[in-house]
Structures are given as C-alpha cells and as structure tokens.
Specification:
Strands 8, 9, 12, 15 and 16 form a five-stranded mixed β-sheet that branches. A four-stranded antiparallel β-sheet has the order 3-2-5-6, with no helix packed on it. It is mainly beta and 230 residues long. The termini are far apart. The protein has one helix and 16 strands.
Length: 230
C-alpha cells in the first residue's frame, strides 16, 4: 500500500512540473521582445542617431512637396519653469515613412536647429547622425538648488542664442556641438553676473555648477558621460 501511494504522488507531480516548465518558457519569450517593431509594409524607417540623447523635438519635411509629414515634441521649452527630465528612453527615436527624400529638422534649446537630408528606401533603416550634446546648469544658493533664468551666448558673448531656466531637479539643455557661454545676470547675493564656458560634444553631458560645492553625488546623477565644472 505504501508503494502505491508513492507511485500516485510521483505520477501526479508530472503535470505540475510540465505547467511550471511551460509557464517559464512563455514568460521568457514575452520578456525577450525588445526594440522597435518591424518596419511597416511598404515603408522605410528613419532612425535618429543622437549619441544617446533619445528624446529630442524634431519634425520631418517632404523634400518634394515641402509638407510636414511627421512631428514629435517630447521636451518642454528651455525657459519653462516646470521643465525637468521625467524619464529616459532606451532606444533612438524613429518614424516609418514612405520611400522618398526628406529633410529632418531637430530643434534645440538655442535658435539654431540641426537639419539633415535623408533618402528613405522601402524595407530599410536610414540612420541620420545629429551632432548635438547637452549640458546642465546647476545653481546653488547656500546648500540648496534654486531656479534662476539664464542666457546662452556664443563663446564670444556677442549674441544671445537662447534662454533657459535652472531646475531643482535634473534638467538638460540640448544644443548643437560647439563652444558656448552661459550667463546668470544680477545675482541677488552679489549683484554681479556669473558667466561660465560650456564645451558641448556629441553624446556627452557637462554639468556647470554655480554656487557652493555640493555634496558628492548630488548634481550629476553619476552618469559615465557627465563632467562637472565649477
């Protein structure tokens, strides 16, 4: 009788093992589906290569008609007092388009946009390199971060290229690669202006810190591509 019970439990356990094994395979298969979906039938794909900056405002014009065929604006204006980084996209931005010739326009946080022409072919991906980088201006008053307006100049301080607002949260400003200067005017603590140079390289982030040195780990989020400057 004891042997019969052992045989019963042995055979009864087989369906349970199969259910667990099949369930494990199903969950693994669904979790492995990463990345963009297949290209839509009859279309080609435009992929933005922005050096890891996977959220930019851009639009696409048809070169033949001049019509805008696509637009995407996930970022708020640089001067907005409520703008900050609310998330991060792991994949480059893309759009499926009919085959043809297009102009891609990427808006930045200064007056200068980045424009690139591209040919889209059916069933193929076309990568468009956008030479942009980003910086973060962090202003401290005492030991706390503050919101203050600032200006973005060309390196020689001859022309105002854009306006921004610092944040108490993480907030990046996207500009074409190059050299700039940022300026905070009439600081309440001193009545003077603060001016800092900014070197923007593709795919890199520079943190510009104005005010008392913060405690380690506060401003830069510890990202490998970020550099701090005071």
């Amino acid at each position: 009788m004891r042997v019969n019970w052992l045989q019963f439990f042995r055979w009864a356990s087989i369906p349970l093992v199969l259910v667990v094994a099949l369930g494990g395979c199903a969950s693994t298969g669904s979790g492995a589906s990463y990345g963009p979906p297949p290209i839509a039938e009859g279309m080609g794909r435009l992929m933005l290569e922005t050096g890891g900056i996977n959220e930019v405002n851009f639009y696409v014009l048809d070169n033949e008609t001049g019509d805008e065929v696509y637009a995407e604006s996930p970022r708020s204006a640089a001067s907005s007092p409520i703008g900050y980084e609310s998330g991060y996209s792991a994949f480059p931005q893309y759009v499926d388009l009919p085959p043809g010739s297009y102009l891609v326009v990427v808006n930045t946080d200064v007056e200068d946009s980045v424009e690139k022409e591209v040919e889209i072919y059916m069933g193929q991906e076309a990568y468009v390199t956008i030479p942009i980088g980003r910086f973060q201006l962090i202003f401290f008053e005492g030991s706390e971060r503050r919101q203050v307006p600032f200006l973005i100049y060309d390196y020689n301080l001859r022309t105002v290229l854009g306006r921004g607002m610092t944040s108490t949260e993480v907030r990046y400003f996207i500009v074409p690669t190059g050299e700039y200067k940022v300026r905070i005017e009439n600081l309440a603590s001193s009545g003077s202006d603060e001016i800092r140079p900014v070197q923007v390289n593709m795919g890199q982030t520079q943190n510009i810190i104005i005010g008392p040195p913060p405690t380690p780990g506060q401003p830069g989020e510890g990202a490998a591509d970020e550099t701090d400057q005071q």
